[in-house]
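As described in the Methods, two query proteins were run sequentially through the folding procedure within a single session, without resetting any intermediate state between them. The first query and its resulting structure tokens are shown here.
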Amino acid sequence: MQRIVIVLSGLLLGGLALAQAFPISLKHEAGTLELAAPARRVVVLEYSFLDTLLALGVKPVGAAIGTQGGDRGPAPYLKPLLDGVSSIGSRAQPSMEAILSARPDLIIADAFVHKDLIPQFQKIAPTVAFHSRRGSYDDLMQQVLLIGRMLGKEKLARTLFADQASLLAKARSFANPRAGGLVAAVATPTSLTLHSTESFIGSLLERLGRKNLVKPQNGQSQFELSLEGLVALNPPTLVLFTAKDENPITREWAKNPLWQNIEAVRRGRVWEFDRDLWTRSRGPLALKLIVAECIDSGLLADRALSR
């Protein structure tokens, strides 16, 4: 993943411009973005970008909040904040017509999901592509700064960034240094997808003081695993991300005698959290909710769950 930087008359600080002056030139995953002035009419095509704009006090003129193609739509915490935000389709199936109607002066796309669509977006408005779906915690937090710069809200973005760093430092004090490693995974009705140390939630849990046992596989930060594979990993802690309206595959696996061979199961250290919040949102607003749940649930302390 290439390093993303803003270039402004050679004046840089950690990849971010010191001045608020425009125009700016920003290198991103799909090329270079030129902005003559702060973006005012923004279309966002991932929930992390939507979360970040809202955290910066900006409502996009359009967002990928539809359910086309089986998308679940935005997480519940976002829905009350979306008055006046037009749907331009779903993340997987954005509508070019709806985007055009929104008259954006900036489109923020996902470098993985929208790779083949970026040339079409660029015909509508200046487009920037970041790794959200396949990004790490560091990637997503750097994007807060970059998005703030493009909106002319760099000072506020830096404040958000500093607040996030402070939040994680405080939360880490709740982590049990003697706790064993963990496996974090999304459990749907048909599959279990592990989130490695290079995924957003996998890297965040490590930042919070819990060791993630899962490394990327074949260049993928997220990948599927069978029950037998999970038993072989035998994690002391298992963190599952599920949906209340679904019957995750792990419910069936729990009926298999192999399930009881997993150390996390024997120790009473199997946690379940809302996957819409924990793995699909990935922004500053979501981060606060996730960290609070990490502490309150006893996950960081490695506290046994009541049966």
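Immediately afterward, the second query was submitted; its sequence and tokens are:
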Amino acid sequence: MATQYEISGASAKGIAASVEQGVVDGALVPGTALPPVRRLAERLGVSPGTAATAYKELRRRGIVVTQGRGGTVVAPTPAVASRRPPPVPVGARDLASGHPDPAFLPALLPTARLSPGVRSHRAQPRLAGLEELTRAWYERDGVPAEHLSFAHGALDCVARLLSVELRPGDAVAMEDPGYHHLLDLVPALGLRSVPVAVDDEGIRPDALRAALRAGVRAVVCSPRGQNPYGGYFTAARRDALLGVLGEAPGEVLVIEDDHAADVAGVPLYSLTAGGAGGGLGGGVDVG
């Protein structure tokens, strides 16, 4: 389907930036077909190689995908930094953002009353009290807490883990549907997302098995408070997932985003606490 958005640019970088801007502005929605390389090159007065290089860069960054004879189209979840989630319909509750209702939050201390000794939680040496509280929090739920680290939020932690443990082009199993910022993060890191269906008990074992057979190197999941369905692992589901991970032919990194923690109102059945063997190459609980 032809698009009304006019792609511009005299270089590969400029063409790629024009397409990305169209995606950011919503003029190029997911599934929109882009012009064939030669046609775009003729219209812009550049060589076919320049246009092809622009498309290659956009594919590498996860903004577009190539569908064989179907040509190049905007990716289902294009990785652009400023893409916004869809507006919340009137009368609906926004459960996607994960933000609590401000009416239920306690009043914060005025900044003038804060201790001058307060510093970053990632400062060195670490705040001993903070580390002790965090370790006790995890150990209470049976999560191994021997190795502990701090990051600037869950997304920062997940990004660091995937960047260190995986290589560009590796596949990551992601909840479908899932948290839109996580879905954007994976292609932005040069990785491929493999959707894994979820139900009321989180990711489904059959869907995870299919993803592992497809060669995923990592799994990102929510043990409770799954966004947007709200599902949570039961003990039986946790054990079933561990069984599937044990069948994996190679090691798999498992990242649990326990963003809701106690607010979820259900106990934590963590994959990292299940004593998994087999393909579980490493488990990380992000709280």
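DSSP finds eight helices and eight strands in the chain. We note this only descriptively and draw no conclusion about the first query from it.
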